[in-house]
Amino acid sequence: MALNKIARTQLDTTAYYQKLLDLNVRFFVNDDNTAILEFPITRHKKPVPLSDVNVKSYIAIITPDGSHKIDYLEFHDELNGVLRYTLPNDVLAQVGKHHAQVYISVNGVNDVVVERKIAFNVEDDYINSIDTDTKLSYIRMFDDLYAAIQQRVVDIENAINNAADYVTQITEARDQAYVDITNLVNQTKQEIETAINNYKSEILQALNESESTIEARSEYFIQQVENAKTEVTQAISNAELVKESRVRELIANLQSKEEAETSYSNFLAQAKNYVDSVISNEVGSSTVIPGLDFNDFNAYIQKSGNYYYTGGLNVPGNFVEGFVKYSTKTSDDTPEIVKGYIEIIPKNNSKYVYASWINSGVIAGWKKTFRIDLNEDLLTKNEVNSLVNNSILNLENEMNQAINNNYSDTGWVDITLINGAIPYNSNTVPKVKLLTINGTRIISIKGVVKGMTSKGSIGVIPKSMADYIVDTRSYVQNTSIDNNITNFNRFSLVSNGEVRLDASTLNPIKDTHWIPLDVTILL
């Protein structure tokens, strides 16, 4: 309930002389919106029903400094003819005895009734007697707080605007990933089909030449395959070193193990040449480099070759031991101008290779890639498609999960209007939504209502959103311009979900007034 100070004084409409009525009422300077004069209007001691339909009511006040103020009275109880007037701050600011008189004019005619004169007092209170320096200090503190709140509102609005940008960027990145993966799959399929067709043509041509020649060559190639396979397997086992790009190039043209046997001689011959080029010496051993610091690589290694490092420093993945292959672009061994390519195979980890370019002694950045094991079965076309499709599905699920974990939006939900409040028009139906970004919750209200004639609750938001409102949040919004005066309303968003009109500069509040509810609040 409101803690108002109400001075009730009956004004009887009569022609008989009535002396100045001292109400013996005292208000204080800081009685903001609580100092109320209430006037039951009677005639022959009986109530006179009054409303803005048949009359207009005014009050004239003469303040202690001689100023005059004329203002409208509020029809508080129309049936019993009770008028009310809440003393404004400019009247309360005048300390001393005030004189007042009530006027009632009848609509449509020139009849005016003047009621008896009254008097009341306004006194200074203790807070108002605080010295000027202290007041200025609090004013400055309020201004600083107001500025900070204004900046916080701007930050919140920017965060909301940027949230949409983040979602768009994530969506675009996901879509681009789909496109890139699809293009890669299509390109790989095309390359495999082309290789198959080429090998089929070569086989048919060989068959047409001579069956006997094919048998002779087959015996020779089979023996070469066995020899080369043994050498390659042994070399890879000893050196644990395979260049991914070269091996992929060699097996990309093979679709199955059956087709591989047909052209395995060419593949093994190339693989053997490659392995011979990457092995440091004939017995497959490598130079050991203890304490190799990859941030000062050329201080330890200047020439192309294969090495084994121990106690490595600044190694990608913190693998302190393993094989390293170094290929220089130039023949100059001076570290400052050396340009080359580095590959690292960590010890006991044959699944990945770490590779990087080195330019003028500076490593550009490591790239982690898969290695290919020649002893493993080759994937069929269906297996490749299955792996790609599973990767796409996993990527989509991971991205959707990341979006759901970090961003949620309830969308706009209608506010349930109460106490006579209705939408101002079909385009301004009051709505509310709750936005969550990385655990931060932001609630927004939009819409305009009318139909209200007094303060109080306007509507209720859904309980699922109200549960996040820990304490009452208040805000101010502009409203209808009345008699060329800009007006404002003060609203509260209560923890039980009520949207409430607490105060208004409109006097009186009419059911045709334009009352917007727009606000965004950080919870």
Count all strands and give the number.
31
Termini separation: 27 Å
Radius of gyration: 45 Å
What number of structural domains do the residues give?
3
- Low-confidence parts: 239-258, 267-283
Structural class: alpha+beta
Globally, the shape reads elongated
Give an overview of the whole structure.
The protein is an alpha+beta fold and 523 residues long. The chain has three domains: 5-127, Immunoglobulin-like (Sandwich); 210-378, no CATH class; 413-522, Immunoglobulin-like (Sandwich), CATH 2.60.40. 33% of the residues lie in helices and 32% in strands. The protein contains seven helices and 31 strands. It has helices at 89-92, 132-209, 211-239, 244-251, 257-278, 381-406, 463-466, and strands spanning 5-8, 11-12, 21-28, 35-43, 46-47, 55-62, 68-72, 74-77, 82-86, 96-106, 112-123, 287-290, 305-310, 322-328, 339-346, 352-359, 362-363, 367-370, 407-409, 413-414, 416-417, 422-423, 431-437, 440-446, 448-450, 456-460, 473-478, 488-493, 498-504, 515-516, 519-522. The strands form six sheets. Strands 12, 13, 14, 15, 16, 17 and 18 form a seven-stranded mixed β-sheet that branches. Strands 1, 2, 4, 5, 8 and 9 form a six-stranded mixed β-sheet that branches. A hairpin with a 4-residue loop joins strand 8 and strand 9 (82-86). Helix 2 (132-209) runs antiparallel to helix 6. It starts with a strand and ends with a strand. Residues 239-258 and 267-283 have low confidence and may be disordered.
